[in-house]
Amino acid sequence: MAGAQVPILLGHDGGRMLLAEIAGEDLYAAELPLLMEMVNRPKTLGFQADMAHTLLFTMGYNAPDDRILPENFDWSDKKGLDEGLKTMTRALRPWTIDFHVAQNDATVKGSGSHDKTGRHCLPHDPDGKLDIVRHAGFWLEDDSGTPTRAVQHICWDGCMFPNATMTEQKTWDDILGVMVAVRDAHGWD
C-alpha cells in the first residue's frame, strides 16, 4: 500500500469518525480489508458496500492483480459468480456498516476520480449480472445464512440514473419491490 492515498479525518464525535472519500484504485484492491485491520477501529470505521461498485472488486477493474473472477468471465456461470462474490463479501462483511442494494451490468461509468466506478442499472435491467435479492444475502447474512444485523444503514443506490428515469413511478415501484424482497429474504426490519 506504499504511496496509496490515506483518507483525511474530517471530524469525530461520540466514537464516530467522518472520513473524506477516496475514490478509485485504492478502495478496489484486495488490500482494503488489510487497511481496515491496520486502522483497527471497528466501532468507528466501517465500509460502505454498494453492490454495483463491489461487483467490480471481483472483476479486478481497478486492481487487476486482485481480481477474483477470471478475465473474460462467463456470466452464465452462476456458481462461479456466487463463489467470487462470497470470497469478496467474506473479507469485507465484518467491516460493512452501510449497505447499498444495487444492480450492475459488469461495466463501468464515471469521470475524474470516479472514472472506474460500477455502472448502476435499474433492478430489472436485462443486462444486470446480479441476482439482487440472493446476492444481498451474501452481505447481510453470515456464511451459515444467519442474518448478522450488523449493517446500520441500508438503501437503494441509483445515483447514476437520468432525472427522467427518477420521475417515473415504475422506477420507484421496482426499487421498492426489490428492497422489500431483500428485507423479506434476509430478515431486515
**What percentage of amino acids are in beta strands?**
15-25%
Q: Which sequence of SSEs, written as H and E, runs from N to C? A: EEHEHHEEEHEHH
- Give the class from helix and strand content and strand pairing: alpha/beta
**Silhouette:** globular
Helix content: 25-40%
Count of distinct strands: 7
Strand order of the largest sheet: 3-4-7
Distance between the termini: 38 Å
Low-confidence stretches: 22-26
Mean pLDDT: 81
Q: How many DSSP helices?
A: 6
Biggest β-sheet, characterized?
A: 3 strands, parallel
C-alpha-based Rg, rounded: 16 Å
Structure characterization notes:
With 189 residues, the chain is of the alpha/beta class. It contains 6 helices and 7 strands; from the N terminus they run ββαβααβββαβαα. The chain has helices at 32-39, 51-59, 78-92, 132-140, 163-166, 169-186; strands at residues 9-13, 16-19, 47-50, 96-101, 103-109, 117-121, 153-156. It has a 3-stranded parallel beta sheet with strand order 3-4-7. Strands 1-2 form a two-stranded antiparallel sheet. The chain is globular and about 40 Å long.
